[in-house]
Write a structure and sequence with these properties.
This protein is mostly helical and 133 residues long. 56% of the residues lie in helices and 0% in strands. The protein has 7 helices and no strands. It has helices at residues 2-13, 31-38, 44-50, 71-83, 93-102, 104-111, 114-130. Helix 1 (2-13) crosses helix 3, helix 3 (44-50) runs antiparallel to helix 7 and helix 5 crosses helix 6.
Length: 133
């Protein structure tokens, strides 16, 4: 329905408002985060759509923060939170290998190239379709 479509987008309108991410799954007081994650599966399509959003925002993670954080990064982190899919699962093997030494920085370096962001989005779309959506 049209209503559902606009609600779906509303889910992701609040991405910019997220100021804090839980460090290790503890509950936090960030209303925008709790709103998006609280929608669970309903938020997945719009979050996948936002992976390629390169608008800059402040990194909401506690530490270490990344100076060049994008809305698409938050979308990816929230997808991982909602789906419980391991962070590195959707990333290419070369990045998984680098993550052993560089941690999350290997991810940021990877998505610094727009085509890699598109590829990451494509993998999530494929995964979502396999879930029967």
């Amino acid at each position: 329905s049209l209503q559902a479509k606009s609600d779906e987008r509303a889910e992701c309108k609040r991405l910019f408002e997220v100021k804090e991410l839980p460090f290790k799954g503890e509950s936090i007081n960030d209303e925008a985060y709790n709103d998006i994650v609280g929608r669970g599966k309903a938020a997945i399509p719009c979050l996948i759509g936002e992976i390629t959003n390169t608008s800059r925002m402040k990194d909401p993670r506690s530490a270490p923060t990344y100076p060049d954080f994008r809305v698409g990064d938050l979308a990816f982190f929230l997808l991982v939170d909602i789906t419980k899919i391991p962070f590195e699962q959707m990333l290419p093997d070369s990045v998984k290998t680098k993550m052993k030494n560089e941690g999350v920085y290997a991810y940021f370096e990877h998505v610094g190239r727009p085509n890699n962001r598109k590829a990451l989005q494509a993998r999530w779309k494929e995964w979502w379709a396999k879930q029967g959506n």
